[in-house]
Amino acid sequence: MPQIKLISNLPMNDRLGLLTDAMHFCPRPNCGKWFHRACLLHARSCEKEDAFIPGSRPLRLLAVDPDQNSDVVHPLLKRYTFARSQSGKMSSADLRAYCLRENLEKILRKDIDVPEEVVEVAGQPIVRYPNAGTFSTAGNVTDVIFARRLLYQAFDGDQFDFEDMTANMEREYGADWVNKDEAYLEAWHFLISQNMLACPLPSYWKKVRETNPFPDGPPPSLICPQCDGAI
After folding, report:
1. 178 domain residue, yes or no
2. If we measure between CA atoms, which residue out of 224, 217, 219 comes closest to residue 123?
3. Which pLDDT score, from 0 to 100, does residue 58 have?
4. What is the rounded distance in angstroms from the CA atom of residue 90 to the CA atom of residue 101?
5. For residues 23 and 135, what is the distance between their CA atoms, to the nearest angstrom?
6. Residue 83 within a domain
7. Would the pTM count as exceeding 0.85?
């Protein structure tokens, strides 16, 4: 079960403010903790924006894999988790003109066949806010973790197997195969056998994107005090 962590010796008056403070979550298995934003800011657990490639913050958020400990970072994302080199071609790189999907497709050198909204959600920090005096139980944690898992699955090319399966199902059962029990059961068995996740309909992710997860504006660029990952 995720823990709530108090990491700084805030003055008592400031501690009372934690009851209405936003919290950030690190989803790595060896962390799995919620941190008060005020505590992180007080402890200076923040990124120095000018130390990294401009516009690369979503890549560092995505690099925090909910299924891997901090010693494992996807090799294609690893370079963006380090401070920018002062020499070489990466020293002048600037990603601010591109969305996360465009940057990922350049890194992977292939198209990512998942909805744009999934990519956007996967690059968000995981935050929750107080609600009627108490914290909500999740914030955007469920959607962000699921979106990141779907993207990592796409990195490995598994979505192409799924596309082949859906094409076969349409040929065998017709375009409305998802509404037929026998076809649905066959698809379910395929997903289980491949250890794959099924992506909800694009309409679900559109609704998620339309819901503003950050009512007080863009969150500060914070890092986990345990693993130094972006949160």
Report:
1. no
2. 219
3. 92
4. 19
5. 9
6. yes
7. no
